[in-house]
Write a structure and sequence with these properties.
single chain; alpha+beta; Arc Repressor Mutant, subunit A; 3-stranded antiparallel sheet; about 55% helix
């Protein structure tokens, strides 16, 4: 999947994401950087008081919508998620220094220790007590945007690898097979390891917890503990996770469109993934509602830019919102694009990149797997029949392994439309993304033109 489209899909409100992954194009102007740094300092000074995104946007002199966009572009986090994570870090440090747990939680804006505990477990993948047993809580230094690089520099990679006794090991940035893009935060190490890093606090720790469950099912790489027995290590603000390399090769989008029957393999793999993810603690992930994203952000943005052109989507959304309420939810992958699916000998051998995992309708992954292929190989999908055939093969493979409820089968084409509408909205109204906006509109038109095929009964 192209990085820009992945960035667009982050407008679906996910958890922490790495700014390395999500920021693209020109760097921030010095003036924007100055204003955002003032915002971060203002947040740091107000962690023990009530503070809202609306207050911060007014102080910054931006509209609320524009402020939230540039804040997320700079930090990789929504405003409230950033505030919550800073409060968690300070409360944890206070607890490590001897302050009573409930007192520390209340001091940093949580209504109760139970609320603090739930938020902490979601962010760190462990309880505060468990975390402090294996991690020393350092004082949370203020965030300085000037010190946050776009990619992991060589000396930081070397610092990170030292935690695993791999000083001097060769490390090369991973290249995504479907796009040819190099990752700035994932590296092949020595002969058999992969180092993954994120600036999102607790992101790698949470991924480690999920991966251990999936590894037991043969669906994810084994986590390699540090020399002192921890799952992750930190190096200059990067949280790092070392894994053994998985067997198999990333799926190729062009091949899937040429041979759409291969989609059954993808669907069967996703069914195994979802079965394994049911064993994970739901406190690890936040709940997502895609109808809310469409109603509160995507469609208003499209209406503002293009008026009545999107009236049909307003009517469609009423039906989709009602459907989404009926759908079974669980922890999902949320980014099963072809670069994140490994296969060998006609079988999915593993899943990569669990950073965006959330609690949502399980059919989201089935719809996203299809649109992820289309986004990479658009232009090779012909009149859309190959895409529709691939999507239905994915869904049929899943249904054979893990039967879908009638409401799930009915909602699958609508979830595809929802995903594509959000992508169109993300790229609309910005000159820099004008070409991508046009391409994503064409993709939406292709999907709508083949809606009847997508709605045919699943075998």
């Amino acid at each position: 999947m192209c990085p820009a489209r992945k960035c667009a899909m982050l407008y679906l409100p996910a958890g922490e994401t790495s700014p390395t992954k999500e920021r693209e194009g020109k760097p921030m102007s010095p003036e924007i950087e100055r204003i955002l740094q003032q915002t971060l300092d203002r947040i740091e000074n107000a962690l023990q008081t009530d503070i809202t995104p609306e207050e911060l946007s007014r102080a910054a002199g931006f509209s609320h919508y524009h402020f939230c966009r540039i804040f997320k572009a700079a930090t990789g986090l929504s405003v409230m998620r950033y505030i919550t994570l800073r409060r968690l870090a300070h409360a944890l440090y206070s607890i490590s220094c001897g302050q009573e747990k409930t007192e520390a939680a209340l001091a940093y804006g949580f209504d109760s220790y139970a609320g603090f505990y739930k938020a902490f477990r979601r962010a760190y993948g462990a309880s505060p007590t468990e975390h402090l047993r294996s991690h020393r809580a350092a004082f949370p230094a203020r965030v300085n945007l000037k010190e946050r690089g776009e990619n992991m520099e060589k000396h930081i990679i070397e610092q990170a690898l030292a935690h695993w006794g791999l000083e001097g090991a060769a490390a090369q940035a991973v290249r995504y097979p479907n796009t040819g893009n190099l990752s700035g935060s994932t590296f092949s190490v020595a002969e058999g390891y992969v180092l993954k890093a994120s600036r999102g606090l607790g992101s790698m720790q949470r991924q480690a917890v999920l991966q251990k469950v999936l590894h037991a099912h043969g669906l994810a790489a084994q986590v390699v503990p540090t020399l002192d027995g921890r799952d992750t290590a930190c190096a200059e603000g990067w949280e790092c996770l070392l894994m053994e390399r998985l067997p198999g090769e990333a799926l190729r989008a062009e091949l899937l469109l040429r041979e759409p029957a291969m989609g059954r393999m993808v669907g069967e793999g996703l069914a195994r993934l979802h079965t394994a993810l049911k064993e994970c603690d739901p406190l690890l992930c936040s709940r997502e509602c895609f109808a809310d994203t469409l109603r509160g952000w995507a469609l208003p943005k499209l209406r503002e830019a293009e008026g009545d052109r999107w009236q049909w989507a307003e009517t469609w959304l009423e039906g989709f919102a009602a459907l989404e309420k009926e759908l079974p939810v669980q922890i999902i992958h949320r980014d099963p694009n072809p670069d994140n699916l490994l296969a060998a000998e006609g079988r999915i051998t593993g899943f990569l990149d669990l950073e965006l995992s959330c609690i949502a309708p399980r059919i989201f992954d089935l719809a996203y797997a299809a649109t992820g292929v289309l986004s990479v190989a658009f232009g090779q999908a012909g009149d859309g029949e190959a895409f529709a055939e691939l999507a239905r093969a994915i869904w049929s493979g899943y249904h054979a392994a893990s039967p879908l409820a009638p409401e799930e089968r009915r909602a699958l084409p609508d979830m595809v439309i929802a995903i594509q509408l959000i992508c169109v909205a993300a790229f609309t109204g910005t000159d820099r993304f004008a070409r991508l906006a046009a391409t994503n509109r064409q993709m939406l038109e292709l999907i709508l033109a083949n809606e009847e095929k997508l709605r045919e009964p699943i075998a």
